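OP here, attaching both records as promised.
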Amino acid sequence: MAPPLPGPLAHLAPLLTHYGYWAVGAVVLVEDFGVPAPGETILIAAGVYAGAGELNVVAVAVIAFAAAVVGDNIGYLIGHTGGRAFVHRWGRYVFVTPERFRKAEEFFARHGGKIVVVARFVEGLRQVNGIIAGTSGMPWPRFLVFNALGAALWVGLWTSLAYVTGTHITAVYDEISRYQLYALIALGALVAALVLRHLLRRRHRA
């Protein structure tokens, strides 16, 4: 029997119960060419179901990997054939605003091909990764290799963690929620320290 999914995973339970692997493939696919969909969330939920014996973990991983690669390549094709004008005209309908796209494109340009791998793990960049690669003129074979590597790492990480969690998801979620405030405080302190360090360096150089 599938375990109850806590927090943001809960609303995906009916989708997984009724459509199973189809839901995983469809949601991951559409998220990867710009449509705002919970691709990462449904991957984690499917991994939990697999850990509870409701789905096959290998099938979940293979389907998610294929959907991620195909989705990003659809995005690449959109960016390559339509260019920036197409994105600026139609992107707002899937929350890819010109400002959001410009920032993502600048980030992409600074870091080169490796960002195709890293972007898979970054919310916002994951959805426009292929589109930006297409508009920037990145060669398709190179994009395909980096994209496949990123998809494999992304699927492997979340599927494995969720599969191991399995029926213990509620207990794990409760523990994460319990220490979330402390983690945010620590993160805030780290950011403040980095900002202070940057300001002191600027002052010293001046």
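Record two, same layout:
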Amino acid sequence: MGNARRRAAGIAVALAATATLLSGCTGNTTPDPTPSASTTPSTTPAPSTSTTPGPSTSTTPRSNSTITPVPGVDYDGGTVPDTCDGLITTSKWKDSFLRAPLNDPAIVGDPVEIPKSVFTPVLQPDGKRLYCVWRDPRADITNVTIAVQVVDSSKAFAVLQGLQGFQCEHLAEGYRCQRISTDNQYGVETGVTYFTRGDIAIHISQANVPTSGLLDDVMAHVF
């Protein structure tokens, strides 16, 4: 009888140990909970080393009161990004103009002073603006500048139509004017591009920096 009781006790201990192992496996196969917003992978492009945002004169949503439909320029779905990094695909330009400082006070001032352009007379007074300059203060001319702002669509279109010395065309539901030339003093290529689509205007200037596809990249982030 003593031997029988000892064998029964040993079987009970073995069964208990087996149940404990199965219980542990079941717990490990439970699906992970849904990730929180802080752990969900972001699809935002990787930021550049310079993350200083361009200035915004207003965050008030743009008014549609001055929007007049214009054939080929009546798209009204664009937005002005909050930061310069949100304006472009940073990974695409990290080995190009993004190596230069962004909005260095020695270049743009402190506070930032946004220079006038052909779009200045047609800006919406309550519209948001973003101004980004990548330029080393030690550089004589090399730079890339991008300005995005809210304008009166019909007037902006008319302004571009009146430009002289630019090649202009309807493009991607908007209107683009571009001029490529050579700087007389430094002998490097310079370019100026104006684009308007709906009530969004884009102004890109560049000097001594290859930027093929830059307007397309900006448009992909704005529209």
